UniProtKB/TrEMBL annotation:
PANTHER family: LEUCINE ZIPPER PROTEIN 4 (PTHR22550:SF5), SPORE GERMINATION PROTEIN (PTHR22550)
Membrane-crossing residue ranges in chain numbering: 273-294, 315-334, 402-423, 435-458
Matching Pfam families: GerA
Protein name: Membrane protein YndD
Keywords: Membrane, Transmembrane, Transmembrane helix
Organism: Paenibacillus cookii
Top-rank lineage group of the source organism: Bacteria
Family membership noted in the UniProt record: Belongs to the GerABKA family.
Gene: yndD
InterPro entries per the UniProt record, alphabetical: Spore_Ger (IPR004995), UPF0353/GerABKA_families (IPR050768)
Lineage: Bacteria, Bacillati, Bacillota, Bacilli, Bacillales
Length: 512
């Protein structure tokens, strides 16, 4: 028992020591840093003397994350050679201690220099790729340069392909992503605020907004929700999305995620706020509406007539994806009299010998399609698409030949699956797929009345749902006829002179 208490006391004392400020005593400060992160094999300690002064110093960095060219040319060379040549010309040494300000302002040829006050703070910077400099007689450690981690090249986002539009997508580097936003328009009103999230593993997070367009109350609300995130680690922006949404019980996402800088910039120009997290290419946009989930950036790059027709087709596909199987079940099981006679006879003929009711048929096929879809996503890319297509054809044909499924049901399920692919936002597509099963059960119990009842329940939920205080189905509720120019239709750009009124902005008129 005493050994256990002694172990806990030692751990507590070590933690307290790592939080004590640096003293300026080189040996003591270096020992504190070694106790904090010296056990890591990829952390390197390079001790040396500054020029010909005899003053001890040490460079601490992580192999593979820190920029070795920066260390060799701009730190080691400056301190060991350039300093030796020039230090006698300046009051750089006082009572055997080197001047920190002289080192920062006249010796180091590095753009970014910050300070760390204790070993705990210094360790977190080093382990995320920064280079640290400890010097005898200098109380605080210097953090030099920036992280040079491994990142992939910028390429077209695979989750949001376009026929026409910019081909660049976000990467896992936060600095690259903020630079992409800056490149979109060079707007001096683009404001970027930095935060840190995660209790044990710190990660950088930024929120971006247009200072002259975004509602200050909205920006403050986003800041407060970000500050309230209390979790050990935030590996992906999906964690942030779940922790800041208004209603976690809703099947609909209240935060939009995207890999496209042009989509994010367009949202910022509407007065919305973007959230970007280091380590993920997916940015978040708030607030959002249901119509945003069914819109694509390509709608604005083409002329308004084809964009208008394609958007109508997309809404129609979303309705089929949600209600297709349930309408089939209700007509076949309860309301055969509403089907034209010849079509009803054809459907009954194809169902002859099928041992299951329509709801069981639909469940078998829909679950099979969902399994194939999920399996195709997890397989290697060369195999996944082929497996999904061939698997669907083989299972459908085999089920029909075995007399388990009617051919008309295969057609309905295939049309529903194809329609779900037309939803441009993957997370919104998942919501429609989940609710499709609920609609099927309503149809199996109450028929067409059940479908109508499900639709009313769905409308009731959507009317009450909000995203950061903005109604989720705006501009339908609250009704604003002026905003319908960019809802199910897309009017010519010359007719859309005002921003949507749902997002309060300082300037409601578009320039030009």
């Amino acid at each position: 028992m005493k050994q256990h208490e002694n172990k806990e006391n030692n751990t507590w004392n070590a933690a307290q020591a790592s939080l004590e400020p640096f003293t300026g005593n080189f040996a003591l400060d270096l020992e504190r840093v070694r106790k904090e992160i010296g056990h890591n094999s990829d952390v390197h300690f390079r001790e040396f003397q500054i020029g010909g002064t005899g003053i001890c110093a040490a460079i601490i960095f992580v192999d593979g994350l820190s920029d070795k060219e920066l260390i060799d040319k701009h730190i080691m060379k400056s301190l060991m050679m350039s300093f030796s040549e020039n230090h006698h010309q300046e009051p750089s040494i006082v009572q055997g201690a080197v001047s920190k300000e002289y080192i920062k302002n006249q010796v180091l040829t590095i753009g970014e220099v910050t300070e760390a006050r204790h070993a705990k703070e210094l360790a977190s910077k080093i382990l995320t790729g920064s280079t640290a400099l400890l010097m005898d007689g200098v109380q605080n450690a210097l953090i030099l340069g920036r992280t040079k981690g491994k990142s992939r090249n910028m390429e077209e986002p695979s989750s949001e392909p376009l026929v026409r539009g910019p081909r660049l997508g976000f990467t896992e580097s936060l600095r690259d992503n903020t630079a992409l936003l800056r490149q979109q328009g060079g707007n001096s009103n683009l404001s970027i605020l930095k935060f840190q999230v995660g209790e044990r593993s710190k990660k950088e997070l930024v929120i971006a907004y247009m200072k002259d367009l975004a509602d200050p109350a909205l920006v403050e609300e986003v800041r407060e929700r970000i500050k309230k995130i209390n979790i050990d680690d935030v590996p992906e922006s999906g964690y942030v999305e779940q922790l800041i949404e208004d209603n976690y019980l809703s099947p609909f996402p209240q935060v939009q995620n995207t890999e496209r800088p042009d989509r994010v910039y367009s949202a910022l120009m509407e007065g919305r706020v973007a959230i970007l997290l280091d380590g993920t290419p997916f940015a978040l946009i708030v607030p959002v509406s249901l119509s945003m989930m069914l819109h694509s950036p390509e709608d604005y790059y083409d002329r308004w007539i084809p964009s208008f027709l394609i958007r109508l087709l997309r809404y129609f596909a979303a309705i089929i994806s949600l209600f297709g199987p349930s309408l089939y079940i209700s007509f076949v099981s309860f309301h055969q009299g509403l089907i034209p006679t010849k079509l009803a006879l054809s459907i009954m003929g194809t169902r002859e010998g099928v041992p299951f009711p329509a709801i069981i048929e639909a469940l078998i096929m829909e679950v099979s399609i969902e399994i194939l879809r999920e399996g195709g996503l997890r397989l290697p890319r060369p195999i996944g698409p082929a497996m999904g297509i061939v698997g669907g054809l083989v299972i459908g044909e085999a089920a029909v030949q075995a007399g388990i499924i009617s051919p008309i049901m295969v057609i309905v399920v295939a049309l529903t699956a194809i329609s779900s692919f037309a939803v441009p936002q993957y997370s919104a597509g998942i919501s429609f797929r989940m609710l499709r099963f609920v609609a099927m059960f309503f149809a199996a119990v109450y028929g067409l009345y059940g479908v109508v009842l499900f639709f009313l329940f769905l409308c009731s939920h959507l009317v009450r749902l909000k995203s950061f205080g903005v109604p989720f189905i705006t501009p339908v509720v609250p009704y604003r006829v002026s905003d319908w120019k960019d809802l199910m239709i897309r009017m010519p750009l010359v007719k859309m002179r005002r921003f949507r009124k749902a997002i309060q902005k300082k300037d409601s008129m578009r320039k030009g």
